[in-house]
Amino acid sequence: MYTHIVQYYETDKMGIVHHSNYIRFMEEARVDFFKSIGFDYREFEKMGIVSPVVGLNNIRFRKPSTYGDEIQIEVRVKSFNAWVLTLDYAMRLGEDLIFDGQSSHCFLSSEGKMIAVTEAKFPEFHKKLKELIVE
Amino acid sequence: MYTHIVQYYETDKMGIVHHSNYIRFMEEARVDFFKSIGFDYREFEKMGIVSPVVGLNNIRFRKPSTYGDEIQIEVRVKSFNAWVLTLDYAMRLGEDLIFDGQSSHCFLSSEGKMIAVTEAKFPEFHKKLKELIVE
Amino acid sequence: MYTHIVQYYETDKMGIVHHSNYIRFMEEARVDFFKSIGFDYREFEKMGIVSPVVGLNNIRFRKPSTYGDEIQIEVRVKSFNAWVLTLDYAMRLGEDLIFDGQSSHCFLSSEGKMIAVTEAKFPEFHKKLKELIVE
Amino acid sequence: MYTHIVQYYETDKMGIVHHSNYIRFMEEARVDFFKSIGFDYREFEKMGIVSPVVGLNNIRFRKPSTYGDEIQIEVRVKSFNAWVLTLDYAMRLGEDLIFDGQSSHCFLSSEGKMIAVTEAKFPEFHKKLKELIVE
Predict the structure, then answer these.
(1) Sign of the CA dihedral with D100 first, then D20, B11, and C89 last
(2) Could you tell me the residue ranges of all domains in chain A?
(3) Interface of chain B toward chain C, CB-CB under 8 angstroms
(4) Which of A111, D20, D58, D70 is the most buried (most CB within 10 A)?
(5) Fold (topology level) of A2-132
(6) Contacts of C39 (CB under 8 A, 6+ apart)
(7) A116-134 confidence digits (pLDDT tens)
């Protein structure tokens, strides 16, 4: 579980967190999630692999959050097929679900070519992600 | 058609626009769209009406953009039923579609209550949005 | 001492943290500093007091930082005279000083009027800040 | 003269533009200034030259601006000595000066080495900047 503490500069004139910032909180939580399962995103980059966001789906801004709030973010693997990884996010303030949604990612080499994260080529990472798929 | 010129501070270490910024470009284009059909968002706010984003759907980051690029953004009304407005966005660099997706919005009073944008209460705005629905 | 862990979205196409973000890190560290001396910025806001930044001085970007770096930020009181508070910041990566500079702040009521943070009106806060002045 | 139209996402919960964003507006205006005197920043980058901000001085946030405001930004050359360029900025809403300050820049090669922008090596750019020094 990742915690983001809302900064003043993340609020807007409605007095609440600007919606675009949740997309950034997703990234923070994602990086933390990878780290928690043993994969440091910086290590990927050193190997010449980047994993850009290719899509966002079912993003729901359910309740507002504001300055000083501690947002708890849960990340789960929704699907993974070597070419595309889809993660699911739930953000909460206490018991209240304030945000949920999914991000999809591909894997690119330093030349910008699509990489298949197969069991043969990336055994540990592949296995770990397969194990973690929910439902 | 709205044009966003990519700023240096909108890029990230991949050398391209950070994906979260497209959500901000959607907002810029939306404000411009409302203005183009005769509704200044600041006027809404003066009347005590805000229109927060409640959802994002089918967001696709198709191709990268980078510093200095001129992104053309087209906004269209996908659906509107007095409670929820859904807008559709297409962003292009020249002929290339680089981004598409939808945002959904509700309408809130200054006390945070849901407002129905009915024909009776908001005749001009209601009529205009109904007319503009595509398909 | 406050720690900011650099996020991916804070980098730019030079591969390093965009300079504007250090101004945001100053804010994060300042809020944490106030909290550490017993003053929660949200409490000020509830009392109708805000403390905007009125100036930045001697800002030096000495060395770059990048994604994943843990920046240690030290905040000290440089001067305070009831109307204006000046804070001094030093940011470090390990032993390396990467950033230093000052911010100046006034105090405003909810009507936007200047407030003097005198010993008579704000005894604890006044005393604490006076005590903490360095040199 | 460069114009920045304030976006909703640039405001904070005080209802005004967050101070860190003015540092970004400085960058926008600087890029535009270079372009106006015949130097496209992207061309520098293609030649392997970057010009990072090394300092900010005498930054004064004099009056607030908010959503929808059209900020006029004037950029002038304050000093230039082949190693360091200092620019001066004045931002106005109508007649009102709302912001002023300076940024200093060095020049780096793609290997991160300091470059001297001498008359011998960069005759046009050097001459232009020398001519434009105010006072």
Answers:
(1) positive
(2) 2-132
(3) 8-9, 11-16, 18, 20, 66-67
(4) D20
(5) Thiol Ester Dehydrase; Chain A (3.10.129)
(6) C125, C128
(7) 999 999 999 999 999 999 8
- Both tokens assigned to A126: 């592949």
Whole-Å CA distances, B85 to A21, A45, B20, B37: 22, 40, 22, 15
- Is pLDDT larger for residue C43 or for residue A30? A30
Q: Interface pTM (ipTM) of the complex? A: 0.95
Which of B16, B20, B31 to mutate to test binding with chain D, by most D CBs within 10 Å of its CB? B31
Q: How far apart are CA B30 and CA B78, in angstroms?
A: 13
D99 vs A110: CA distance, rounded Å: 42
Contact assessment for residue D3 and residue D27, using Cβ atoms and an 8 Å cutoff: no
Structure-token pair, residue B66: 């980078």
Give me the mean pLDDT over the D48-74 stretch.
Answer: 96
User: A30 vs chain D: nearest CA distance in angstroms?
Assistant: 23
For residue D116, the model assigns a pLDDT of: 94
Could you tell me how far CA D33 lies from the centroid of its own chain? 7
How far apart, in whole angstroms, are the C-alpha atoms of residue B119 and residue B121? 6
Say how many C-beta atoms besides its own lie within 10 A of residue C25's C-beta: 23
Chain C residues bordering chain A (beta-carbon distance below 8 Å): 7-9, 24, 27-28, 31, 40-42, 45, 67-68
Supply the pLDDT for residue C43.
86
What is the per-residue pLDDT for B111? Answer: 86
CA distance D106 to D113: 10
Average pLDDT over residues C97-115: 94
3 state DSSP class of A114: strand
pLDDT in the model for residue B3: 98
> For residue D123, what are the CA distances in angstroms to D75, D126, D128, D129, D130?
22, 5, 8, 10, 11
* Per-residue model confidence (pLDDT) at position D51: 92
Indicate if the pLDDT at residue D48 is higher than 90. no
Cα of first residue to Cα of last residue in chain B, in angstroms, is: 19
Query: Would you state the pLDDT for residue C47?
Result: 83
The two tokens of residue A54 are: 């290719």
Q: How far apart are CA C114 and CA C111, in angstroms?
A: 9
Give which of D62, D55, D52, D69 is closest to D19, Cα–Cα: D62
Rounded Cα gap, residues B31 and B40, in angstroms: 8
Helix pair angle (C20-36, D20-36), 10° resolution: 170
pLDDT in tens, A100-120: 999 999 999 988 899 999 999
In this prediction, the residues of chain B whose per-residue pLDDT falls under 50 are none
Chain A residues closer than 8 Å to C27 by CB = 7-9
